[in-house]
Write a structure and sequence with these properties.
Blueprint (H helix, E strand, L loop, with lengths): L2 E5 L8 H10 L4 E7 L9 H14 L4 E6 L3 H9 L5 E5 L6 H13 L3 E6 L17 E5 L14 H14 L5 E5 L7 H7 L3 E4 L1 H4 L4 H9 L1
Parallel strand pairs: 1-2, 1-8, 2-3, 3-4, 4-5, 5-6, 6-7, 7-8
């Protein structure tokens, strides 16, 4: 059974406390925090995501799954470590080389947090292979990062299958997360490709029954 990480990117500020409660009751496995800096991607969400993270830590025990879509990775790692996340994921495209990536991975781990590495739809999946022995998760973007409500790019499903096969062949203890455009209508194809964790935002938030939607996604 897959786990579900519910994105709050599409949640309006006036509804956030109620939504946090309702999504927790609906048995999400993680709250997904989409951090954008307006540089790595066009949109800027950091202020609202920081605010939401603070609310979540004050009223909920659901672990935070922080996805950094930013250029200055270290700066935002420091910001979100304050909210004691379960995992912080940064993009392979945001670092200049393997050395920088390994330094950031080590830094996150030293702060008692798991670490993930994300890859965009137009980046070859084998670019992250050399980092897999050092991380807990690889996040395959199934849309281009930067905004919610996009359509899943079906070509990315093969990337999920390829990295899952590579992880199994090498016996790495790494899970595969898929993020972007995932909803009830297409979640089965993402699961079949090999995803262990499904990120869904509007695919859950726009539904009337959160619990039923999450249950069906997990099945």
């Amino acid at each position: 059974m897959v786990e579900i990480s519910t994105s709050f990117l599409s949640v309006e500020k006036e509804n956030v406390m109620k939504t946090i409660y309702n999504i927790e009751v609906a048995k999400t496995d993680f709250f997904h925090i989409d951090v954008m800096d307006g540089k790595f991607v066009e949109h800027f969400t950091n202020d609202i995501m920081e605010e939401y993270s603070g609310y979540m830590k004050s009223v909920s025990t659901v672990p935070l799954d922080v996805h950094l879509m930013v250029k200055d990775v270290k700066k935002y790692i420091d910001t979100y470590l304050n909210y004691e996340p379960n995992i912080i994921t940064f993009h392979i495209e945001a670092v200049k080389d393997k050395i920088e990536a390994l330094e950031l991975i080590k830094y996150i781990k030293e702060n008692n947090c798991k670490v993930g590495i994300a890859v965009n739809p137009d980046t070859k999946i084998d670019k992250v292979y050399e980092l897999l022995p050092y991380v807990h998760m690889v996040l395959v973007m199934t849309v281009f990062p930067g905004k919610g409500g996009q359509q899943l790019i079906t070509d990315t499903l093969k990337k999920i299958s390829d990295v899952k096969a590579y992880i199994q062949e090498n016996d790495f203890d790494v899970c595969v997360e898929a993020d972007g455009g995932i909803k009830l209508e297409n979640v089965e194809s993402v699961k079949k490709a090999g995803a262990d964790i499904i990120v869904s935002g509007t695919g859950i938030i726009k539904q009337d029954d959160y619990a039923e939607t999450i249950k069906k996604m997990k099945e």
